[in-house]
Amino acid sequence: MLTKVQIRHVLDTMTEMFPDAECELTHSNPFELTIAVLLSAQATDALVNKVTPGLFEKYKTPEDYLSVPLEELEQDIRRIGLFRSKAKNIQKLCRSLIDDYGGVIPQERDELVKLAGVGRKTANVVTSVAFGEPAIAVDTHVERVSKRLALCRWKDSVLEVEKTLMRKIPRDEWSDTHHRMIFFGRYHCKAQSPRCTECPLLDLCREGKKRVKVTG
DNA sequence: CTCCCGATAT
DNA sequence: ATATCAGGAG
């Protein structure tokens, strides 16, 4: 585990590398953001962004998503993958938005996670990006980067990773750090071929040192 | 824990 | 061919 000074160094380095890191899912309101994040499970942002422009043009309100047969919505999002469960969740989500929330995405995380297809990670993204509430959404990138850099323990669950990061990072830096860690993981500390040899954090990364020794 | 699933990189 | 992708439900 890293010291306080080392963690400060990690945060500052990521800020230098990705000063403008932000949500890359295209959206223009909280409802579109929620749909986009739901669709992004086990899919790349790039692919989601290819589908959502047409989707958001066709479906603008919860009522719109409920106005077509399930099979039609499935075909509209088929390219993203996991399309059957996602289409079903979208219609269930829209039904409860109309029935229980006045057709509007709720701002509280405890309410968001009650929506179909919305778990803790998606809820954290929505509260943070759409409503400006400090949060750290632990996705595959944040988990991988946190474990490689020993910001948390290797065996930690995603919930434990989130708690650890919230404890070690100042609250007013949660959202920016969260996005910088995603960029760092997506473009630099990648799952398959991480750029360890050109990494400014290699000296405090056990995983990177091991990897450099093996691969050269 | 398993299952859902197509697109893309390696 | 296989791993991975802004996970969540059962």
From TrEMBL:
[4Fe-4S] cluster binds at C189, C196, C199, C205. Its EC number is 4.2.99.18. InterPro entries: DNA_glycosylase, Endonuclease-III-like_CS2, Endonuclease3_FeS-loop_motif, Endouclease-III_FeS-bd_BS, HhH-GPD_domain, HhH_base_excis_C, HhH_motif, Nth. Its cofactor is [4Fe-4S] cluster. GO terms for molecular function: 4 iron, 4 sulfur cluster binding; class I DNA-(apurinic or apyrimidinic site) endonuclease activity; DNA binding; DNA N-glycosylase activity; metal ion binding. One of its GO terms (biological process) is base-excision repair, AP site formation. The keyword Acyltransferase does not apply. Keywords: 4Fe-4S, DNA damage, DNA repair, DNA-binding, Endonuclease, Glycosidase, Hydrolase, Iron, Iron-sulfur, Lyase, Metal-binding, Nuclease. It is an enzyme of class 4 (lyase). Pfam families: EndIII_4Fe-2S, HHH, HhH-GPD. The keyword Lyase applies. It catalyses: 2'-deoxyribonucleotide-(2'-deoxyribose 5'-phosphate)-2'-deoxyribonucleotide-DNA = a 3'-end 2'-deoxyribonucleotide-(2,3-dehydro-2,3-deoxyribose 5'-phosphate)-DNA + a 5'-end 5'-phospho-2'-deoxyribonucleoside-DNA + H(+). Binds 1 [4Fe-4S] cluster. Residues 39-187 form the HhH-GPD domain. DNA repair enzyme that has both DNA N-glycosylase activity and AP-lyase activity. The DNA N-glycosylase activity releases various damaged pyrimidines from DNA by cleaving the N-glycosidic bond, leaving an AP (apurinic/apyrimidinic) site. The AP-lyase activity cleaves the phosphodiester bond 3' to the AP site by a beta-elimination, leaving a 3'-terminal unsaturated sugar and a product with a terminal 5'-phosphate. Belongs to the Nth/MutY family. HAMAP family: Nth (MF_00942). NCBIfam families: nth. This is Endonuclease III.
